[in-house]
Write a structure and sequence with these properties.
Order of helices and strands: HEHHHEEH
Shape: rod-shaped
Number of strands: 3
Structural class: mainly alpha
Radius of gyration: 35 Å
Number of helices: 5
Number of domains: 2
Strand order of the largest sheet: 2-1-3
Helix content: over 70%
Largest sheet: 3 strands, parallel
């Protein structure tokens, strides 16, 4: 009776099973939808939007107004302090105390103004930039949907460490959508 080598048969079956498994994995891979990745630098997009320049100018004008008001308050304090120092020797105790309280009150008003001005400036910046940010987000979403992107990554935030080499930079598409050349 001929000897049958079981090791050879098992290796053939094992090899055949591997080939079948690989084929099945490829077939199931085709059945899954392919993700399409895109990326853009939102900082670059934002810098190109004409509305940003208008917002920046408005913010600079508002900042200048606040700065002018602060300078006027500081000038008032300096003038009153200079006057107080010049006349200090001739002032009675009651008037001297009143002048010192007045100087302290002006200093406190200046400090309060500086704090409030900083908060107002931040609020104004947010009010001016939020509509521009929303417009950019909407354009990005529309471009992503129109071009079949599953994911769009922002490479301008510094939080993205990796994106596939087959992802597309969609900045030019979003610029076109916004009418930016």
């Amino acid at each position: 009776m001929p000897k049958i080598n079981l090791n050879k048969m098992n290796m053939k079956n094992f090899g055949f099973a591997i080939v079948i498994a690989l084929l099945l994995m490829n077939v199931s891979g085709f059945a899954q939808p392919k993700n399409k990745f895109g990326h853009l630098n939102s900082n670059d997009l934002f810098a190109l939007m004409p509305e940003r320049d208008t917002a920046q100018k408005t913010l600079q004008n508002y900042s200048k107004q606040l700065e002018d008001q602060l300078v006027a308050m500081q000038d008032e304090l300096q003038k009153k302090y200079t006057d107080y120092q010049a006349n200090q020797a001739t002032l009675g105790d009651m008037i001297k105390k009143t002048k010192e309280e007045e100087l302290t009150a002006i200093q406190q008003r200046i400090q309060t103004f500086q704090t409030n001005a900083q908060q107002d400036l931040q609020k104004k910046e947010s009010e001016l930039l939020q509509p521009i940010i929303e417009k950019a987000k909407k354009a990005i979403e529309e471009v992503a949907k129109e071009n079949g992107y599953t994911y769009v990554f922002d490479t301008g935030t510094g939080t993205l460490l990796y994106w596939p080499k087959d992802s597309d930079d969609i900045l030019s598409l979003v610029k076109t959508k916004l009418g930016i050349k």
